[in-house]
Amino acid sequence: MNLADPQAAAGLRTPIRHQLFIDGRFVDAESGETLATLNPHDNSTIAEVALAGRADVDKAVAAAERAFPAWSRMAAADRGRILLRLADLIDANTEELARLESLDTGHPLHDSRMLDVPRTAGCFRYFGGMADKFQGDVIPVEAGFLNYLLREPVGIVGQIVPWNFPLMFTSWKMAPALAAGNCVVMKPAEITPLSSLKIAELMSEAGLPDGVVNIVPGLGSVAGQYIAEHERIAKIAFTGSTATGRRIVQASAGNLKKVQLELGGKGANIVFDDANLAAAVNGSAWAIFHNQGQACIAGSRLLLHEKIADEFLDRFIALAGSIRLGNPLDAATEMGPLTSAQHRDRVLSYVAVAREEGGELLAGGKAPAASELARGCYVEPTIVRVKSERDRVAQEEVFGPFVTVLSFRDEAEALRIANGTDYGLGSGLWTRDLQRAHRFARDLHAGMVWINSYKRVNPGSPFGGVGRSGYGREMGFEAMREYTQVKSVWVNVDAQIPPWYPR
Ligand code: NAD
Question: Predicted confidence band at 9 (pLDDT cuts at 50, 70, 90)?
Fold first, then answer.
């Protein structure tokens, strides 16, 4: 296989990294095994990527342990400076990173350039600035004592990243962990390892000491499972499916790891009859169709007030039909392929489920007809009017460009449907009624609520869910708390303590 071709075809200037990154060096897997990572546009092989096994994870943990004492005791501002340098390098490599991400995941190049890369740089920059601003407390305890709290890094942190936003999630996981002084063993998803390996290269350039970050692409069932079990990994942070999240909790029990889980969602997106309809139509399309719907916070359940349902749907269906599907590396493309053929098949299988359940297919439901897309993992924007909020397609996370529609009569019904799933990640509503907006913000079962917008994220704003959407929060001060543990230090300054055993 000629590995230079995909690089040239994607307009990449630098070689595609395809080895494990351990102790500051790119190395092959101990077993010599590799796994092909594919271009979802046509399922051609981009690169054969080294496949980490247990021995490689052990090597990565040992490297992290060697790096930990110096890294955790380095002045926080110095750690921050390295992350700030990394953020600048990411900005300077925007085009390279954007092309690589689009090639490996199917994200439209426009999105990779405008969202994935800037958000990745922004996250490292935010936590670079945070490193020396996150501080402990002094507790007003009894007279004569000083009691202060140290916020210490947890130690060696295992991080497991999914395939839907591999570049951005690399920063969401690593930036707070590193700012707080932890060392990292990170496993990207086996099907999308390339952008995190490129970040590793930039980390070395930014001056990150060897061993502080180790990246071990590998199978979830092998490398991922072993990271979750590992006796010398103190914390695990995971983003992915609820089923895998459960497995990770079980695997982590051996050494009682600290666990942080960002799992799936089935976001309600509620449009009231007083909403700005043009904004709601456009925002609702973005909520579900951005990144081909492969987002845990996708607005995948559209709830429409009965008075505006018909007009909204007319406009929404027309907009969905106008979205330009195409090769992600074409800058005009608005929707690319799903990230793998297996996942495309899974999404399309839900179209069959919808039909069995008596759902009405209002748009899409199939691969596009265009011959140039025939070898790729494409699915048209799909809109299904469901019969019942209890239908499987209205309850299970499809994770594709697949939105269910239901109408409601009043607030009470909208809230009941919105809260009627096991998930609780993000939800949103469109209304001009101020009181209603805040009532819903209070009453929605969710970790995040968007009012008159959807899917807003910012490195300062906590991100995470409730219920089967997981626990713990990424971003902001909350993330720094997740990646630190508190030590309470008591100092007898001048306390007069009567002796316990007077002699
Ligand atoms: P997954 O949960 O199996 O994979 C996510 C990550 O976990 C990958 O890096 C994978 O290698 C790893 N993994 C898998 N099994 C593991 C194990 N036993 N121990 C440790 N790590 C393991 O998700 P998937 O199969 O790729 O996708 C299936 C569904 O998961 C999707 O359709 C979607 O519903 C959901 N999902 C959600 C998100 C999210 O952002 N919340 C991301 C990806 C997938």
Answer: confident
